[in-house]
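In response to the reviewer comment on reproducibility (Comment 2.3), we provide here a single inverse folding case reported in full, input and output, so that an independent group could reproduce the run without further information from us. The structure tokens appear first.
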């Protein structure tokens, strides 16, 4: 029986992917094999020695101590793309809010007083203040062409916009999904100089923090609009406020309220609604649960943020999984430990990702505990387990 600790309310559709005859799932549970989490902060949390995996029902993993998990050989799974449609729709909403001055117009309409005749007169006199412009024919720059960025680029093409994309790490899969009408930028600066609207869809890292800076805001076309439905910190708030004050840009729309941004007419902040749909929560939970289950039951790794993807069919024999530092001679040492007790290897996969590596091995006969202990003692090995 596998034990799963939930740190947030996880969608029922996700939890249903974990059969009750094989899984015990609860918000208070001792000695968990895995943790399912949404937004709860795990930094500073005491990590149970039994923990084998962490599943994040969402894309970002800033709330999870990934480095600590890596040192323990624990894969951290996320759900990239599961919320992409929800975020795409929010970006479209943001484009419309900014181009048509909808928030300001709504505030004006809500403040109207008097009888209907008076309200109608004030409406006709006041509406010119909120005249906007159409999206069609304007340029949208999309920084980051992952699951969300590709959807945003494609829908903007459908809206009649000219789309420029930048992502030096775009995958073959995403490139196939991207409209051929999306133009390529050679750098962030190149993209900004060609864009009326700019939307960012990258994770928050040391390299992307403050990506949209004061210097870069000067590159955007006059009356430009910046949208951030990715992560707080990617856009420099102080620089945005200054650019708005100096009329360098028309508007800023983001999903991350703060005191610095509050109360400014041309800055629209929303309460982190990007992925807040029932459908997105369901899809994220399903993906996270499926990946954790596949790892616990078969040792397969898909969509881990810290370990390579390793998927090996398991039809016969007995399976061993080894998480280790990416150092020379590791596979040979693992193979030698198996050979010393006469274990014949049926299949093996070893892959690395940066400083970490992962090995799956299928052998003909049961794996003695002594072999697990021997492999665990190899310098650089982080975690070893036999997999039913």
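Designed residues, in position order:
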């Amino acid at each position: 029986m596998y034990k799963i600790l939930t740190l947030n309310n996880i969608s029922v559709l996700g939890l249903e992917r974990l059969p009750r005859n094989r899984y015990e799932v609860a918000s208070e549970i001792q000695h968990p094999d895995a943790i399912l989490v949404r937004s709860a902060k795990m930094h500073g949390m005491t990590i149970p020695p039994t923990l084998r995996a962490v599943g994040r029902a969402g894309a970002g993993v800033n709330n999870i101590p990934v480095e600590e998990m890596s040192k323990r050989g624990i894969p951290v799974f996320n759900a990239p793309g599961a919320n992409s449609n929800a975020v795409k729709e929010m970006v479209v909403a943001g484009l419309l809010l900014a181009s048509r001055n909808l928030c300001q117009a709504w505030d004006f309409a809500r403040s109207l007083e008097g009888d209907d005749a008076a309200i109608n007169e004030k409406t006709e006199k006041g509406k010119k203040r909120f005249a906007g412009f159409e999206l069609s024919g304007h340029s949208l720059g999309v920084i980051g062409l992952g699951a969300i960025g590709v959807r945003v680029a494609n829908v903007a093409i459908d809206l009649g916009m000219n789309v420029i994309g930048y992502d030096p790490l775009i995958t073959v899969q995403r490139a196939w999904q991207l409209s051929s009408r999306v133009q390529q930028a050679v750098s962030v600066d190149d993209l900004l100089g060609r864009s009326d609207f700019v939307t960012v869809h990258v994770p928050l890292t040391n390299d992307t923090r403050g990506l949209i800076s004061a210097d870069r805001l000067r590159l955007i076309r006059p009356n430009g609009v910046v949208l951030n439905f990715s992560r707080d910190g990617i856009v420099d708030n102080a620089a945005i406020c200054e650019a708005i004050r100096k009329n360098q840009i028309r508007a800023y729309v983001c999903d991350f309220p703060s005191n610095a941004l509050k109360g400014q007419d041309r800055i629209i902040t929303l309460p982190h609604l990007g992925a807040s749909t029932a459908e997105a929560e369901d899809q994220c939970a399903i993906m996270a649960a499926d990946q954790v289950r596949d790892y616990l039951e078969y040792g397969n790794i898909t969509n881990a943020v810290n370990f390579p993807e390793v998927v090996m069919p398991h039809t016969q024999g007995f399976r061993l999984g080894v998480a280790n530092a990416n150092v020379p001679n590791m596979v040979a040492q693992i193979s030698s430990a198996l050979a010393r007790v006469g274990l014949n290897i049926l299949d093996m996969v070893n892959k690395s990702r940066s400083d970490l590596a992962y090995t799956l091995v299928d052998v003909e006969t049961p794996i003695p505990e002594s072999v697990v202990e021997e492999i665990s003692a190899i310098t650089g090995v982080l975690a070893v387990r036999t997999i039913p």
